[in-house]
Batch of 2 targets.
Target 1
Amino acid sequence: MDRQAITRMAANGGVIGAGEVEALGCSPEDREAWVRRGLLVRVRRGAFVDGDLWSQAGVDERYRLTVMAVARARGGSEVVSRHSALALWRLPLWDVDRGLVVLSSDVEEVATRSGLRVTPLRGLVAREPVEGLQVQAVADALVTTASFSVEAAVVAADAALRDGLCSPEELEDAGDRLLPGLRGRARARRVLAAVDGSSESPGESRTRLVLSALGLPVEPQHEVRDGWGRLVARVDFLVAGRVVVEFDGAVKYAGAEGQAALVAEKVREDRLRELGYVVVRLTWADLDRPQEVRRRVELALRRTAA
């Protein structure tokens, strides 16, 4: 592969547009040969990603690379927005369409074609440079995403607050500016009310949403102490004062380290039970069955009252 093209692609974060390739003096035939050899991956017409990066990337990273490649192929003058902006800010993605790249430009109407949506730029004033592209500011991207999906925005907003990418004040300001012009205003308001930067993972964010939707009194990241005031555990959620709800994601218990983690977790739960708490563990599958979550938590509540 042409060394200049490799250098340009590296400078672009692993992506390159067809126009950039041709500007370097490489022919379309050269480019197609690189695609056949797996050196480039075409993610959309005129938009390419480094083949090695693509092969090693997970689903969210592939989407981020796709967004960058598409924006770069279109000249980089448009603003990456909504959940596509969240991807470039490297925030966790949940309940979003990874087959759709969203850009904002000086157009009058929304246009969607072949996995690309271009929306009017009006009102989109908060933007920042990321990877050499114009990207909607974090708080604004969260609010506009919130108008389409509560879960998507809460998962990303929890992470943004936790990691210091935006502040509660910036999120509130974005809501004041953008909500009047959004179709999904009610959803967006629910997001602004539900965001909590204490959640440490997308699974915890979703668990909090499920428990709250069930009308259960939830205290996140509660510190459990014994009778001498010594810290026993910091639990994901405490419901009604006596039921501990923990989200159990992709926990690995294989190998020596995994077995040590399993033993430590059992000791921790035994200490919680000795203090009178009932522990309920939820998995990704449980979060898609809210009535089952209600049944298990209510059963635990009855056990604490017995």
Target 2
Amino acid sequence: MFEDFHFSTILIATIRNAPVLLFAAFAGVFAERSGVIDLALEGKMLASAFTAAACTYATQNPYWGVAAGIAVSCLIALLQAYVAINQRGNQLVFGIAINIAASGLTFVLAQYFFQLGGRSPDLGAARFALIEFPFAESWSSIPALNWLFGQFLGGHTILVYLAFALIPVIHWVINHSRFGLRLRAVGENPHAADAAGINVAQTRYMALLVGGVLCSFSGAYLAIVQSGFFLRDMSAGNGFLALTALVFGNWRPLQTAAGCLMFGFFAALQIQMEGVAFPGIGQIPGSLIQMLPYIVTVIVLAGVMAKSVAPKALGTPFVKSR
């Protein structure tokens, strides 16, 4: 029924959907502002999701799971950096290769270790606990305050708060810190940056490592918070949606975060629309509803790509002048 369509529920779901995209998109911001195309976000998310779920199940401690996910994602980022920076390989092809390898390898390992058809066991109580605001019970009798502080702002896990706390931090790092200045210089004109004494290769390595850490949070959030288990290809294209948000935000942190929230909103809207009968329309077919985030992606890319300005050295290997 149409009465089951609640806008407040969509807003809460948006907050819970956004961290997956925020972490991955910010990882892409660091990599691509340094001049390296990061098409491997999907693969790093998937690898860290499997590792985080497996380690959390083994230790019954989600923090160990996150740490393991960080290690794996950073190893992939280092391999990616070696191919893109040292070997000057094709960044697009290698990114696709990582995505394909992660999709197959995580499934094989999950089947080998758990024998559950390529998924991990449920994590149960090993998942991150929800954080409630102090004195939450005192305003539970007031519906508006209970919704605002108990559901919209409160009642989330630590990774949700970390994702939103990183928005101003990363904005400051990219635009106002010394590292951010070097990062942007390397991405725009690596030869001028090299002439100014900036180590181009080292800056790009650091950018990809930071991106590896951030991308691991996205994978860990998928496995430990959203699902409570690992499932084959559970990233479900979120890495590519994060890249779309990155282009939508013109490679700038605040605008990229707005793009992530937009996609998170439409993902929440998609779930809320399933089974709802709209006046004069009736129920919309489920397959059409599931297409909604991707239709929005196509529209955004068609409308924004022509206006977005990528870093000038993006995807171009740096060869030091003699």
